[in-house]
Design goal:
By secondary structure, the protein is an alpha+beta fold. Helix content is about 30%, strand content about 15%. It has a two-stranded parallel ribbon. A two-stranded antiparallel sheet has the order 2-3. It has a two-stranded antiparallel sheet with strand order 5-6. It comes from Sinanodonta woodiana (Chinese pond mussel).
Length: about 100
């Protein structure tokens, strides 16, 4: 990662807990060199099919693990299905439809 001058939201993907910890540490170190810091309260970890319970840490503090995650408008959950995402999209469409006015 070369340019974190305007980093706001960032999603890191890894196959193993070790790879994720390494990537997280690299982002934290590069950010610090630019005067930026990772907000540990806002940062979340989403694991799927994970065999390790070891937490991902930033500067020694464990990041919160969550059971679902919204990425680019799609809801991902530990079950790996699309039920939650489809229900949410139907609900949003239903709400938008009810706001339409008869002409």
């Amino acid at each position: 990662m070369d340019d974190l001058d305007f980093a706001d939201d960032l999603a890191l993907l890894s196959h193993t807990q070790q790879q994720m910890q390494e990537k997280t540490s690299i982002v934290a170190d590069n950010s610090a060199s630019l005067g930026l810091h990772i907000n540990r309260r806002k940062s979340k970890v989403f694991k799927t099919n994970a065999s390790s319970n070891t937490p991902i840490t930033v500067e020694g503090d464990a990041l919160e693990e969550v059971d679902s995650f919204t990425y680019l408008g799609s809801i991902l959950d530990k079950q790996g299905g699309t039920d939650a995402d489809v229900k949410t999209r139907i609900g949003k469409a239903r709400a938008a439809f009810h706001q339409l006015k008869n002409i």
